[in-house]
């Protein structure tokens, strides 16, 4: 504790007239621009898979219908253009929820395109047709089959079986008036020979979207780019209209990088789930993807409700937001660190929130509905304490600041607000009785 006496006391921040008017961009050299990723070659879309793949996370709770409806509203608010409502064949409740969500989308005149998933199995597709009839609105069918040799081996399937099951089911769905997206599970580990056969079959039967699935999170950005480019060339060679969609998992922690690489290579749409929930370690996180798309300048929709969306995903699926999750994590914009806090406080004094927002974060908190917070803890300096006290309208004389800081340094974790207030109160009483 005696070492604290050696800490230099914080000088009052210098003020520099006019600093507030300096745009942050002019103070930040951006190496990212030196080798900037290629912009997507065409407009792109986003489909939210939280209510399909997201709830396949073993840790997720199946959200109530009310929560699902609220989530759909928030998806619309953040500018997502399509939503997968689930698998009607999974259970009577799943079917009923899909129907209720379709009715909601219609009644509220939302612009989200609703979609559902099914196996290449006629009885699954019949359930989708039920959902369309009961819900009274079209649903895009995402019809899937395990494609890779590994997946075929596990099931005892042949490529002929995959092609005929796909042709049969897609043909049936298209004749029934459904728009069809063809989903090849494990695409990123499937050979070009397999994909060539299946994609030509699907497009020939009227599928209008090919979904490239990195089902086990095997892809790297280079692999994602190669697969997207190869698929675009294949579609062009068929003369059929067809779009490319990317579905990525995060097993190697590369979900976001792969999604961005797929987009740069020409994917028309990306799939993602709020908070990155989904099978095993989950899917590309929709919230982090949107954050990056926005910062890259590739997405212009207002994202001030993005943190609300992420909170709702957490609440609806009963999955806590990790403390260090980008943007919405508890710690995303707070610091208890002395050097960082001292600089942040000076920046606040000089230029207000906008510049301060860029000082110790690459994400401007205010733009996304959040704000910077300064805490007091064992890695703090006097600046933290003084700011903490002043921002609560409390006295912040040197003796009190030193006492709070010495006390905080002795602790193993950041103190709670009430605990700091207790130290302040004890100090006040001691002074009162002394004086
Ligand atoms: C794209 C993805 O993420 S794939 C994950 C899809 N999501 C889910 O599975 C969640 C919801 N699933 C469910 O509710 C159930 O698994 C159901 C209703 C689909 C099927 O339940 P069950 O009939 O009891 O089958 P079960 O789940 O045990 O096994 C899956 C069956 O589907 C078969 N199957 C899987 N995909 C296909 C396909 N595209 N075409 C034909 N059969 C398929 C499997 O071979 C297996 O058949 P089997 O029972 O003869 O071995």
Automatic annotation (TrEMBL):
Keywords: Manganese. Residues 1-24 are annotated as: Disordered. InterPro entries: 2-IPM_HCS-like, Aldolase_TIM, PYR_CT. The keyword Manganese applies. Residues 44-310 form the Pyruvate carboxyltransferase domain. This is 2-isopropylmalate synthase.
């Amino acid at each position: 504790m005696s070492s604290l006496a050696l800490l230099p006391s914080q000088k009052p921040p210098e003020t520099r007239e006019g600093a507030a008017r300096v745009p942050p961009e002019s103070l930040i050299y951006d190496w990212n621009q030196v080798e900037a990723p290629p912009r997507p070659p065409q407009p792109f879309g986003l489909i939210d898979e939280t209510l399909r793949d997201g709830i396949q996370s073993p840790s997720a709770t199946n959200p109530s219908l009310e929560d699902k409806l609220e989530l759909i509203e928030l998806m619309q608010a953040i500018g997502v253009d399509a939503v997968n409502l689930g698998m009607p064949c999974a259970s009577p409740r799943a079917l009923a929820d899909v129907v209720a969500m379709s009715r909601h989308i219609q009644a509220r005149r939302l612009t989200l395109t609703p979609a559902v998933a099914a196996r290449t199995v006629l009885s699954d597709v019949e359930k989708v047709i039920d959902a369309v009839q009961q819900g009274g609105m079209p649903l895009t069918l995402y019809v899937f089959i395990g494609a890779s040799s590994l997946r075929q081996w596990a099931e005892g399937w042949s490529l002929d079986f995959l092609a005929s099951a796909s042709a049969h089911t897609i043909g049936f769905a298209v004749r029934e008036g459904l728009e069809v997206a063809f989903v090849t599970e494990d695409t990123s580990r499937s050979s070009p020979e397999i994909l060539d056969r299946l994609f030509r079959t699907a497009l020939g039967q009227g599928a209008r979207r090919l979904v490239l699935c990195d089902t086990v999170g095997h892809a790297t950005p280079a692999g994602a780019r190669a697969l997207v480019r190869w698929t675009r060339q294949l579609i062009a060679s068929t003369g059929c209209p067809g779009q490319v969609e990317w579905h990525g998992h995060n097993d190697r922690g590369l979900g976001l990088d792969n999604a961005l690489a797929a987009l740069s290579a020409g994917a028309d749409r990306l799939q993602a789930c709020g908070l990155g929930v989904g099978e095993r370690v989950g899917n590309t996180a929709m919230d982090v993807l949107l954050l990056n798309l926005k910062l890259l300048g590739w997405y212009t929709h207002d994202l001030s409700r993005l943190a609300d969306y992420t909170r709702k995903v957490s609440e609806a699926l009963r999955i806590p937001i990790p403390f260090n999750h980008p943007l919405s994590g508890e710690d995303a914009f707070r610091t208890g660190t002395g050097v960082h806090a001292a600089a942040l406080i000076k920046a606040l004094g000089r230029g207000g929130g906008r510049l301060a927002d860029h000082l110790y974060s690459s994400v401007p908190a205010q733009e996304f509905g959040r704000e910077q917070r300064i805490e007091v803890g064992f890695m703090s300096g006097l600046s933290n304490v003084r700011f903490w006290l002043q921002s609560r309208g409390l006295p912040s004389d040197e003796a009190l600041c030193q006492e709070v800081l010495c006390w905080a340094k002795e602790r193993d974790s950041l103190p709670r607000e009430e605990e700091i207030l207790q130290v302040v109160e004890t100090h006040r009483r001691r002074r009162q009785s002394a004086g």
